[in-house]
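Researcher: Predict the fold of DNA repair protein RAD14.
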Amino acid sequence: MERHRQLAENRAHALEKIRLRQQALKGQNQPVPQKELTPEQRELIEKNRQKALERRRIREGMEKGNYRIADQATYAPDAPSGVIEGAKKGDRNHIQERIRPSVKKADYIEYDFSTMQDTYGGFLSDADRKEARESDKTLEQWQEEKQSRPLVEPAPPLDIANAPKCFECGSIELNRNLLQTFGCRVCKSCENKYPEKYSLLTKTECKEDYFLTEPELADETLFKRLVKANPHSGTYSKMQLFLRYQIEEYAFKKWGSAENLDKEWLRREEMRVKRRDKKFNTRLREMRKKMRAEEFTRKLRGERNERHEHHWSRGEPTGEPGMVRRRCKDCGLEIEEIQM
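Model: C-alpha cells for DNA repair protein RAD14 follow.
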C-alpha cells in the first residue's frame, strides 16, 4: 500500500510540472524582435556554408567513384578547423597545398591502359619510364652520356701561328673528339683520308693482329682509349677503342719492326695449322682403330661361330711418345694404346 501511494504522489508531481511548463509556453507565444546580423557574422555564415557544400561535394564524389571531384576539392577534413579559419587569405592556398593528398587520383584515372606495358613491377606509361630512367642514372652512365654528347666546336683561336695544327695538312680545324680523348692532332678530312693510321681498333683486334697482351691493353699509361657501351648487348663488358697508329708504334717497338711482327704472325699461323692437323689425325687414327678392331672381331666371330676374347701381348713402344702397340695372341689383331 505504501508503494502504491508513493507512485501516485510522483505521478501527480510530474503532471503538475507539465501543466506549469505548458502555461509558461502559452505566455511566450508573442513574437520576439530579431536582431540584425553584422557584416562579420554574415561573412562567417557564408564561410560555414561554403565548407558544408565542400564536404557534401567530397562525400558525393567518393560515393559515386568520381575521384576527380574529390581531388579537385580544396577542403581538407583532417586539418584542424582553427588552422583554416584563423589563416589569412594570402596563406590559405599555401595551407591547402600543404595538406593536399600526396596521391593525385586524377592523373591515375586519365591513364590509358592500352598504351601501357607490364614491367612486372607495376604498369608504367612511357612518360613515367622516361622520367625514371633519367632520375636513376649512375655516375658512369652520366659520364658516358656526356662523352657521347656531340661536342660544341669552340671559336677559332686568335693566335693562328701558335694554334695546334694537324699532323698531316697543318689545318687548325682539328677533330676535337680525337684531340681530347687520344691527344691526336688531326683534322676530319685527314682522318678519313688515312684510315690506316687514324682508324679505331677494338681490344680483340689488338690482341689478334698485333699480339698485345691483356695487361698491356689494360694499362692506361700506355694507351688512351675511348669507352663505349657494347653494341651487341648492354649486359656485356664495355667496348674499348684504341687509335691504330698508337697501337702500331708500341707493337713495332715490342717486336722490333713490322717485318718481325709479320714473321711472328706467320709462325703462330703455322702452329695453329699444325695443332689443327694433329687433332684431326688423332681423331682419324682412333676411328680407324675402332673400325679395324670391329671388323676383325666380326670376321673371327663369323668363322668360329662363337664370341672371341682377345689375349693381348705386352705393350711394345711404337716410336711415338706415350704410344704402345699390343697384339692378340690368337687372331693377330694389333692395336695402339696411349700409355698413361
